[in-house]
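Render this sequence as a predicted structure.
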Amino acid sequence: MKCTVMGAGAWGTALASLLSENGHQVTLWAYEPDVAESVNAAHENRRFLAGVPLHQQLQATSDIEQACTGAEFVLFAPPSHVLRHVAAQSARWVPASATIAVATKGIERERLALMTDVVEQEIPGRAIVALSGPSFALEVAHHLPTAVVAASTDPVAALLAQQLLSTSAFRVYTQRDVVGVELGGALKNVMAVATGIADGLQLGFNARAALITRGLAEMTRLGVKLGADPATFAGLAGIGDLVLTCTGSLSRNRSVGLEIGRGATLPEVLQGRETVAEGVVTTESAKALAEREGIDMPIVRAVHRVLFEKQPARWALVELMTRDLKGEGE
């Protein structure tokens, strides 16, 4: 099939190369002209996925019309804060018959929309799939075993994404719970910032385990309120992605928390970073969404206080531990 990947960060590049390896005609759209040039000339994304050889047939461009025209499968993978803009710019060129997948993880800050909702609003009338799960781009690019979920209310679209993307090292499961899959992929980044802060404070493995477990409870509460299946949070897009992002050394969100726990300020941590740590943006939108829905998310609030309200990290963790005692299921 003719496939397009919109967004040439590490994740988009890894997925584009994977699709190309599966025998599809793939165009990778890059916002940065030097990235497109690097992919075409050296078969490497030297800016965002340096040192990883890409499939020889993968082509890149910075021209949206060229990227989207005639595409049968369009996969969006830009950072969450620019997804709406990229989708809007692509809308006139995406064929009406195309299936769309969204691999971006996050909650839109302004409208509190999920990523598939953002794309559907800008490019209506197409079947849309959410792709999520525990998947570091570098490991996918190196063909290390990975399992993810393709979720859609259109089972034919989910099956198509599964067939296009699956390899002997990249296993794709289908799902119908788009809301649960998307919330799992977005909220786990906030929990990874929290566990990074705890690790930076050297609070120990017990604290890390508690934050991951209670973080999962918060994610599930919000998900159920928004109509998600609670079982989704026990799967790849829930606990799977949560554990990976909270513990893996390749996690950008955990590394942000780690530096803050060691005493750095958020501007100091973000200065000079070219890659996006989605947990920072999602902390604001998750807090606003929880407040809108009347859901108690104390870890999200604590991370927000540390990142945006200048509360010392250790104080925020102390407040979490000294909240009113209650039953685990409350």
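Summary. The chain has 15 helices and eight strands. The CA atoms of residues 70 and 95 lie 6 Å apart.
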